[in-house]
Amino acid sequence: MEIWLGLAMFAALIACLAIGIPVAFSLFGVAIVSLLLVGGGVDALGLVAPTLWGSVTSFTLTAVPLFILMGAIISASGMGSRLYGSLATLLHGVPGGLMVATTLACTVMAAVSGSSVATAGAIGRFSVGEMRRFGYRDSDSCGAVAAGGTLGILIPPSIPMIVYGIVAEQSIGKLFIAGIVPGLIMAAAFMAYQVRAALRRAAVAPMPGETVRVTARDRLAALQYVAPIVVLIWIILGSIYQGIATPTEAAALGTLASLLLSGVIYRELTLRKLIVILEDAARGSVMVLMIIAGAMVFGYVMTTTQVAPVISRTVAGLDVSPWLIFIAINLLLIFLGCFMETLSIIVITAPILIPIVSAFGWDLIWFGIILTINMEMALITPPVGLNLFVVQGVVRDVPLEKIIRGALPYVLIMIAVLALVAVFPQLATGLVGKVR
Fold it and tell me: Is 95 in a helix, a strand, or coil?
């Protein structure tokens, strides 16, 4: 009975999303109707308000609007353009140097933005044009930006990790630290692919090259724009790793530091720009918090009606290898990633997947990284890969098909890193023990 009820709830949820109802309202609607029909009727609705209020007033959740605000400040401050220009100078002469600079810039921006869309938008706005100027193919340049932007949710801070941590009741700080090594491995794999692709292409055609001469003095001068962002990264991640601050406190420190950096050092924070930043951050924060609130009510209904516990016990009792269950979970996440955006997938699947993961004795921090890598793939897999559309918004004359073709090799790299983290979970959990 409970399994059929669960299937009916998910079918109703997918139907609501398919006809264009926003994610948060779809979650609320299906949850409340389910409560009225099978969860105890009108009397059961009395517990919805406390669940709703508790889901959006926790201290931990304050990190979400703070990181969104910090990402908006960084995107509007010109910090990304300075960073990319500096890295392009430092990597001058490396095969595929501008693509590698794009990935490296996305890696650094990921460590201060918390959002893949913000990372892709901040770097793609000028990197694609620069790569075009030096003869890179549109598919290569757009693919590098779209894939590099996905690092924004794997390398901490990460808004999807915060959402997962709240739903799974796991330490946000531990999730952040767990994402560092897999994120760096992913970035290194991207750059290795880009260098190899550039070398292979050079065998049959002239290699795109930066014709401007770069001296040692130029490289040294370029470091001045990298150093402030490195300090900002240390403020955020260093304070968490060393136990100086919680993720929420680190988000507040990072926001303050980014304001000082853009307003005092770079002198680019005008009153008009600040108003736009606050409006963008407010819209993004309300959207995320509404989705989280809807997810918590939806999860409450799944537990109250015994749907989640029964499904998890049924799956755990199957006479099959745990690896088959693991592969099935990942295939489900990849499939959903083709049609839904990342936060929606996390909040919809977590009430079912977390009990299953716990039943098999798997580490929920490790699984959070596995889930995040799947969400990275969701960002560049058609037809609803958000980063694909972000890049197309930056370079409107490039067909979406060409952007997809450039991004697909990176999906294979993500699958390889996913398998690596699955087989060697200590890559994700090795540093976690040092975090409180």
Answer: coil
